[in-house]
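Let's sit down with a protein and look at its sequence and fold side by side. We need material for that, and I hope you will provide a protein of your own picking. Once you have written the record down, we can walk along the chain together.

***
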Amino acid sequence: MKLHEVRVYKSEENLAREDQLAYKIAEVAADPVAVTDEVSEMVINRIIDNAAVATASLTRGPAVAARAQALDHPHAPGSTVFGVDGRYSPEWAAWANGVAVRELDYHDTFLAAEYSHPGDNIPPILAVAQQAGRTGTDLVRGIATGYEIQVDLVKAISLHAHKIDHVAHLGPSAAAGIGTLLGLDVETIFQAVGQALHTTTATRQSRKGEISTWKAHAPAFAGKMAVEAVDRAMRGQTSPTPIYEGEDGVIAWLLDGPDARYEVPLPEAGEAKRAILDSYTKEHSAEYQAQAWIDLARKLHNEHPEVTADSVEKIVIYTSHHTHYVIGSGANDPQKYDPTASRETLDHSVPFIFTVALQDGEWHHERSYSPERAGRPDTVKLWHKITTEEDAEWTRRYHSNDPAEKAFGGRVEITLTDGTRIVDEIAVADAHPLGARPFAREQYIGKFKTLAEGVLEPAEITRFLELVQRLPQLDAAELYGLTVTAKPGLINLAANPKGLF
């Protein structure tokens, strides 16, 4: 990997195109380096993972609405949409599938200076692969690039520190991945990356206070913009330049300002793109920083049945800065303690999540969020006894560049009314590569089968799993099989919500 210094330049400095970050990203995307077998196998895992969580979302409101929009845009050759038959315009297929993948907050993650769900790259890259008649090998190459660019940007440039939503790293990465998929030249990819970034910067209010259904749409919008940006660039249209480094650009006005300096790691020419191996998926449908807390709460449920809403005086979770201020009491969002809050809000409340997992000894993507579950009196009572505090050591570990030290958990101290103190800690989730039960192909398949139960016919489950595991060998026609069709009667197209189209 090579570190590239990125800073703001005044217009009169006339930064050469070849020295701009967007151009360097494009050079990585255009590099014909082979994908390693290990990366190829992980790409398969993540396609299975995406399909699993999208399948579980097929009847949820955001996925229904986004799918209805896509169905109003049939196209040939087109791209597939999760849940239904037919072919649709690739940017709208990317939109619908992106929402379905993101809705349950249940797919993969990478956390560093910024945080991300790099699996969000897959829907737009797959949609373009189908539209353009590409092969499974091409798709693997495109996805490897999408992961590489997003993870590398996330390692170097914080967006949330300036209240910019994390999908600002997704637009460029998806555009770069599509560029690799299509074998585009550096100049075309450069223009697409710039356009994708320019159109996908937005504030973090989508993840603050009363979190709305837009949370599921935000990454899908970035993917859709990436598809459109590539299309425009292929037609010879250009983008604002330099998009990152310009004196009126993203860094100068949206991020660290005119004196900012970043060091962005990118693969050198001929170096394999391996960043997907740094990312990790979720065993539970919740914000990633809550994954380890669910696992610790399940453990405490079994070890300490004496912990109840009545026996507890207080529970303090000591954790990283990010966990405390984004999904903990440090956010100062009263909605995080509101039993009538939206699912999207509860998903970003570690006090709520820890309470339910502690009481139930499990976490379920639907039952654990139900209004009845959130409003149970003993749950509300215990929930309001839980606070979070930042711990400097856990913050340091959260930001560590050493994979063996990097952690997303913390320490919990439970004080009972009789004075008893229960103290325990967890560094990473059980499903993390360094966790108690790391996810491998068997677990990805198990997750898919669990979430597909009652949604897909058994034959459809088998068909998809057999096909996807042959990904590098798939031809263009077979690539259309990388979708799922819901069991008859599950999706009522006549009931689709209506809009302009």
The longest helix spans residues 136-156.
